[in-house]
Write a structure and sequence with these properties.
Keywords: 2Fe-2S, Disulfide bond, Electron transport, Iron, Iron-sulfur, Membrane, Metal-binding, Mitochondrion, Respiratory chain, Transmembrane, Transmembrane helix, Transport. Belongs to the Rieske iron-sulfur protein family. It is a single-pass membrane protein. Its cofactor is [2Fe-2S] cluster. The chain is an alpha+beta fold. It has two domains: about 1-65, no CATH class; about 135-255, 3-layer Sandwich (Rieske Iron-sulfur Protein), CATH 2.102.10. It has six helices and 15 strands. The strands form four sheets. A five-stranded antiparallel β-sheet has the order 4-3-2-1-5, with helices on both faces. The protein has a four-stranded antiparallel β-sheet with strand order 10-11-12-13, with no helix packed on it. The protein has a three-stranded antiparallel β-sheet with strand order 6-15-14, with no helix packed on it. Strand 1 (about 15-20) and strand 2 (about 25-30) form a beta hairpin. The radius of gyration is 51 Å and the shape is elongated. The two termini are about 100 Å apart.
Length: about 260
């Protein structure tokens, strides 16, 4: 049967009919308008009536549509690229170096752009930068009074101290305090005291002109600060923080930040 199929596949390139009559198979090949029986070498006219007759008499009708005798190969056939290879290996060396250098420059540029955009996204926004510095008119604050302003979301105490308050702050033995700091270290001008209005214990806002020392008092846990904002009594561990500030040349404005 294998030999007959091989002869059939090599001889005829059209589709074939395989008809089984009893035990002995007969191979029929359709060639244009004729049907050829390979076993008996008989030639018949190829029409619908002949095909129907073969199918009705044998009971089995199969139409072969695909070639099955393709020779097997042990390994895939690889094309020969020898004509495309460079005659001298050093010929393409300059091009290789150029490509590597170009890719390196492009990669470095992309990395720099990525890092720059990432750092720019982490910088402060325009509204935050607008509040980075605050200007205060000093002429609007009378002597002996406090003013509270908002800076970077925190309250800031600004007190125009009297001469008696300045003298009291200087006479205090600051070396014995819990957080030793002289009044000169906490002020740039003795009459102006600038501090963050945040208690150093748990972040509460102290009350001005209150407490046992005439400065500030935190009613939450009982911390007392003197007229220089130094902790004198209570659970607070540190003095009130002094932010970065400066005065204008004419001393008319206070700039915080």
């Amino acid at each position: 049967m294998t030999m007959v199929l091989s002869v059939l596949d090599r001889t005829f390139l059209q589709s074939s009919l395989v008809v089984f009559t009893g035990v002995k198979p007969q191979v029929w090949c359709r060639r244009h308008t004729r049907i050829v029986c390979i076993v008996s070498r008989r030639d018949y006219a190829c029409n619908d009536e002949t095909i129907a007759f073969l199918a009705s008499t044998t009971g089995v009708f199969q139409q072969r549509l695909l070639h099955t005798s393709v020779p097997a190969r042990d390994a895939p056939k690889v094309p020969d690229f020898t004509p495309y290879e460079a005659k001298d290996p050093s010929t393409n060396r300059a091009l290789s170096y150029f490509m590597i250098g170009s890719l390196g420059v492009l990669s470095a540029s992309a990395a720099k752009s990525t890092v720059t955009e990432f750092l720019a996204s982490m910088s402060a926004s325009a509204d935050v930068l607008a509040l980075a510095k605050v200007e205060v008119e000093l002429a609007s604050i009378p002597e002996g009074k406090n003013v509270i302003i908002k800076w970077r979301g925190k309250p800031v105490f600004i007190r125009h101290r009297t001469s008696e308050e300045i003298e009291e702050a200087k006479q205090t033995d600051w070396k014995t305090l819990r957080d030793p700091e002289s009044d000169e270290q906490r002020t740039k001008k003795p009459e102006w005291l600038v501090m963050l209005g945040v208690c150093t214990h748990l972040g509460c806002v102290p009350i001005g002109e209150a407490g046992d020392y005439g400065g500030w008092f935190c009613p939450c846990h009982g911390s007392h600060y003197d007229i220089s904002g130094r902790i004198r009594k209570g659970p607070a561990p540190l003095n009130l923080e002094v932010p970065q500030y400066d005065f204008t040349e004419a001393d008319a404005k206070l700039i915080i930040g």
